[in-house]
Design goal:
With about 650 residues, the protein is α+β, with helices and mostly antiparallel strands. The structure holds adenosine-5'-diphosphate (ADP) and magnesium ion. Magnesium ion binds near residues 341, 343, 344, 536 and 537.
Length: about 650
Amino acid sequence: MTKKQKKMLKRIILSAVGLIAVALLDHFGPTVWLPGPIPFLSVSHTSAAGGAAWSLALWPLYLIPYFIIGWDILWKAVRNIGHGQVFDESFLMAIATVGALLIQEYPEAVFVMLFYQIGELFQGVAVGKSRKSISALMDIRPDYANVEREGQVETVDPEEVAVGETIVIKPGERVPLDGVVLEGTSTLNTAALTGESLPRDITPGDDVISGCVNLSGLLRVRTTKGFEESTVAKILDLVENSSTKKAKTEQFITRFARWYTPAVVVGAVALAVIPSLITGEWTKWVEQALIFLVISCPCALVISVPLTFFGGIGGASRAGVLVKGSNYLEALARTETVVFDKTGTLTRGVFNVTAIHPDECDEALLLETAALAESYSNHPIARSLRDAYGKEIDESRIGNVAEIAGRGVKADVDGRTVYVGNDKLMEDIKVSWHPCHKVGTTVHVALEGEYLGHIVISDEVKPDAKEAIAALKRAGVKRTVMLTGDARAVGEAVGKELGLDEVHAQLLPADKVDRVEALLAQKNPKATLAFVGDGINDAPVLSRSDVGVAMGALGSDAAIEAADVVLMDDKPSKLATAISIARRTLSIANQNIAFALGVKGIILVLGIMGKANMWAGTFADVGVMVVAVANATRALKVK
Ligand code: ADP
Ligand code: MG
């Protein structure tokens, strides 16, 4: 509990004790406490008239516990009226209790205030707790970094470490900044980022990502990013800002509260006035109207629905899925079409060279020319060719690099123009090429307008890709589509292996957008189309689809920024997990709405019929809120 909450608890206890004391005094009458006649009462207090007079004389005492517990609510109601915001919860509570005092229902007035405050306190504690447990889950922020400066190891704030400095990470410590390992081998626990408990082995030359925990060995790491640019800062930023993008359900609740409260007040006035004019029983109907006001307080909804979505986002991030707002959670729950990119998404994006077929030179030269031309590209093909080449690349030999999306690259190598890419690229530059008999992705190489030969590479599907498609179908996804820029034969082989409904191959990034537009037009307008990509050559589609899902690639910034949902461990199967978390969250939110409105409705009817008193109304209000908040925290738990 915070200091403020403790203070409130004290006020609640004090006021409750006061209420009980005054009520006892009132109930047993003066006989118990004062055996003799009371000086200021003109009639004997042991008679009936005397008892009533006693109660009458006592009522100001109820104001003590009333003001102890309610002064801030009354003050807030008055202040809000001054600001023109008349109809809020404090206003409801203020008129209900002041009204109760006016019709001489003194204990009820205190009790309603008391319970309202108990409810508020409970809610404050519960919300604080679940926010805290979400931040604890996301507790990936490193506290310090050990940086080597002038032969000494200093412990500093991670934000003070510059790019290119050397940091030391001891076993058990959190990696403070993104970097590359200079020295040492170890295993890293990436669970906080990916939800996966499988440790990753790290050797010199490997990239390490901030937020992971170093498990076994001492590592010396050269930082490649400052703290603000590091993975951990980006993720925290994302999660912290996720609540600004509200789900429709949440927006509905806000709008609902805005017209609901005035409606309730108008209803209460009508209930107090109309039957009274007919029957003449003013006290009775004013009391009914006050009960109606107490019962109608919307706090359970206003609190529990946003809390449910917040819990859902927290639960998803625990499973390694970052959702950038509750609106995306809501959209995910309705997913009907899933479109995948191939390379890096369904396949590993790590190509093996299966054949080198030179026309005009030897194999080594063909591979070297290709690898050099690809030295600046981030495409998985480029990385694989560089790996196959295996030697250090002398960057001074390369110039005028241009990436041609969906086709390949162009670069000057030793001052001569080289093109590396697919059939389309060769057509574009009018170099005569020939296809390869081997199945796989064919990468053609042209030097100064002459065909040099081609390299055939092949990729593997990710181990969980097949299961990912099956899980999506089980979750009710109707259409699974793969879009690829790769050759038709390669695309179709992958599609068949994984059990995809459709495959479209040889697409340029712009063609992918067209395909997605067509799929968007074909689907049910209420359902969602999700596109899953790795962020390389598919950023336009990521933003065009209803929900863009990116492979987090543990560090690929472009993807993390362009997407609405990020799968932190690059596993396509996590999409089905995310969909089921989203559905669960939505159903919890709906349960809360139905439950709160249902119970309130019943009590309201009972109240109008004169079967529920103010005590029942108060219990119902607080009870509904406690149940709704407890239910909301379930969204945080993932199976
Ligand atoms: P995918 O849809 O499979 O992710 P891309 O749109 O990234 O594929 O690329 C489509 C095709 O363009 C690749 O299959 C390859 O033939 C060619 N390509 C793209 N970038 C490069 C590159 N850097 N080097 C060689 N070929 C490339
Ligand atoms: Mg791709």
